Amino acid sequence: MLFTEILGQEHIKAHLTQSVNNGRIAHAQLFVGPEGCGTLPMAIAYAQYLLCKNTENENTGGNESCNLKFNNLSHPDLHFAFPVAANGVIKSHPVSSHFLVEWRELIEEQPYGNLFDWYKKIGIEKKQGQIGVDEAQDIVKSLSLKSYEGGYKVMIIWMAEKINTQAANKLLKLIEEPPNKTVFVLITEDEEQIINTIKSRCQVLHFPPLSEEIIKQGLINKYSIAEDVAGKIAHQANGNFNKACDLVYQDTEDTQFEEWFIFWIRSAFKARGNKNAIHDLISWSEDIAKTGRETQKQFLQFCLNFFRQALLMNYNASELVFMEPKSENFQLEKFAPFVHGNNIIEISDELQDAIYHIERNGNSKIILTDLSIKLTRLLHKKAS
User: Fold this and answer.
1) Could you give the CA distance from residue 139 to residue 133 in angstroms, rounded to a whole number?
2) Edge-to-edge strands of the sheet including 203-206?
3) Residue 159's pLDDT is what?
4) What residue spans define the domains of the chain?
5) In angstroms, how far is CA 149 from the centroid of its own chain?
6) How far apart are CA 364 and CA 299, in angstroms?
7) Domain 3-208 has CATH 3.30.450.40
8) pTM for the full model?
9) What is the pLDDT of residue 230?
10) From CA 220, how far away is CA 46, in angstroms rounded?
11) 251 pLDDT band (50/70/90 cuts)?
């Protein structure tokens, strides 16, 4: 993968290439950035620059046969680990090596893809993937071997926040004192979920969200769409190129999430003193509970963002509002006055608590019903 194929992040490209040119390569690095900012493509381009001894701050000019191997991510000294779970084909002890064909397809099709895209790709969208102890054993085994081409070995661990405790304990010593010429690149969207004993052993690089202009140019170059359309999509994407690509194809799950959200909000408004609306909320909770836990977490995160957007609209920060509801009968401007300083913190806390409990395998129907009843009270709270 060429550095020129990666949108923006020029200061990070310069830092990484200079560190290789100067021979100052940290053995463990943590790339931290929000979805769609390019952490994974950057890690792959960095690995190529390092393994192929490229020059001129680009992935050319070095070992051409090595560069060719990176075209289909088949270099023997490039290793990947990522969250997995058992599916219809792999029934037990799933590890990343079982899913490399699908992984390469995902990077070819959606290098800026998110965790949910990956779960859908391997058919585990109703499960929660993890990087477990079997994966840790595979990592230890693969990195104990000598490098195939006599140079560096690179281990890219994508979504490192999904490393469970047992795997983290097994990897700790290896990350602290890796074999000679071994580089770990851990990638995360949530730095706080990385255990401190691992984070403290890594050099941390923070990736900012992409600017609207960079996303706009990326969309024009990739899809040849009109500049004004690309500009509108870039604004809605809020720094996330993966979301921008989904919006081009109208392939975003946000459309379904918006329908669920609007029904939920309307039922919550009606539920005060209306028994029938309470039944609607319970039925809604049952329907959402039938989806996978990853879908539920994605949806609740969408709700969190929707409430924040409404708050910004209510306090006249319209330039920061990027959401545009597709429903003809729902207007953000009319909903915004019900989200204010007197209830937003409680709403946010309740949503984050629900995400926490769902992630830890709580009963989704009970969690969502409880959240719905609390939302009914909070939406009727008066602004102070």
Assistant:
1) 10
2) 78-81, 153-158, 182-188, 28-32, 203-206
3) 93
4) 3-208, 212-252, 253-379
5) 33
6) 13
7) no
8) 0.79
9) 84
10) 25
11) low
